[in-house]
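Sat 14:20. Reprocessing the chain from the morning session after the first attempt stalled halfway. Input below, unchanged.
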Amino acid sequence: MEIFVDFGLFEVMLALGLVTAARKIYSRKVLGGLFLLASVLLPLALLFLVRTELTRWLAAACLGTALVNAARIYSEIFRGSKLAARAKLTRMTG
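Finished this time. Tokens:
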């Protein structure tokens, strides 16, 4: 067996890619709003589609965390926060 040692380089690159994608998505109001809506509606749909009690509880937990995240991100996007100002500054400078 050959061991490929990368010291977590690919994981760091993946995380940086996710951060970049999230900043691009949530710096625009319409696109960010659509992603927020999808992140809340999909766990809500799971509540109605699941059949067993355990999966229903898991879907409820996912919905709860999605609602908390959506509330926080909504306040950042639509209320003129530091995140939106930083994204605008980033677009202007580079």
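The two ends are 45 Å apart (CA to CA).
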